Amino acid sequence: MPGSPYTDLDRPPLSAARLRRALVFPHGPWTRLELHAETASTNADVAEAARSGEPEGLVVVAERQTAGRGRRGRTWQSPARAGIATSVLLRPGEAVAERRWPAVPPTGYGWLPLLAGVALVESVTRLAELDAALKWPNDLLVGGAKCAGILAEAVPGGSPAQPPAIVLGIGLNVTLRVHELPENPTGLPVTSLHLAGAAATDRDPLLRALLRSVADWYDRWRTAGGDAVVSGLRDAYLAVCATVGREVRALLPDGGELTGTATGIDPDGQLHLVTPSGEHRLAAADVVHLR
Ligand SMILES: O=C(O)CCCC[C@@H]1SC[C@@H]2NC(=O)N[C@@H]21
């Protein structure tokens, strides 16, 4: 696409052969990889596969998305070869006897985007050698700016007895340049690993490390029946969460807003907020760090 600000063929493509090495990680759920040069949204692709009965473990990766989805109905920009855009299919409600994974009740599913956030911090810290943290629930912050986002979407089962599948989508800005960065509606600055001074921006190892880390945490969490405390996931999340202990403004899904101190994360992954009007537990919100 000559003339498009998003086309940059100097950026090396992802290698399906190199990425497939992440699929054989022994504890992971990954079964199949699809790598697309372009798609509308990897979350939409995986949701469609889930509706067609695809088993757990599909990984869809795209070099570019034309209609990437963000949280709360927003869009997500995925310029060609400049980031990681991936979605995975998880079926936590189905027991897996050979792995000794019991079925996780749907009340526990809220931890999946937080799990992906922990995996993002681990892989970015290790490979890009940057200090990374999470703004609750799962915005990856590098130097106080957003570098990645996570969108988990539920796909209802085929019958009321069948638990929903979860599409877990991760978008990471790797080599985006300043003119390619989108504006964040809450005023949060946005960055990429390259702009933040990453030691390495090779996307194959980054994505492999990310898939391994998600697989590792998913195995621990599933083995513990979806219990974030027993699996150690809650502690791992708290260790990298930049929100707890801060003064924050929470923009609520109903348009309301609360200002107070974030004091903790409960066993369901909800944020505790202490405000002058009392204590609140938030399942979803856009959080702005004030101090
Ligand atoms: O708003 C956010 O912060 C969440 C952004 C999630 C973007 C990723 S990119 C891969 C996957 N496919 C999508 O359409 N969205 C997610």
UniProtKB/TrEMBL annotation:
UniProt keyword Ligase, yes or no: yes
MF GO annotations: biotin--[biotin carboxyl-carrier protein] ligase activity
PROSITE patterns registered for this protein in UniProt: BPL_LPL_CATALYTIC
One cellular component term from this protein's GO annotations in UniProt: cytoplasm
Protein EC: 6.3.4.15
Domain BPL/LPL catalytic: 23-222
InterPro entries assigned: aa-tRNA-synth_II/BPL/LPL, Biotin_CoA_COase_ligase, BPL_C, BPL_LPL_catalytic
Gene3D superfamilies cross-referenced by the UniProt entry: 2.30.30.100, Bira Bifunctional Protein, Domain 2 (3.30.930.10)
Pfam families documented for this protein: BPL_C, BPL_LplA_LipB
Origin: domain of life: Bacteria
Keyword Calcium: no
Entry keyword set: Biotin, Ligase
PANTHER family: BIOTIN PROTEIN LIGASE, BIOTIN--PROTEIN LIGASE
Protein name stated in the entry: biotin--[biotin carboxyl-carrier protein] ligase
Native source organism of the sequence: Micromonospora nigra
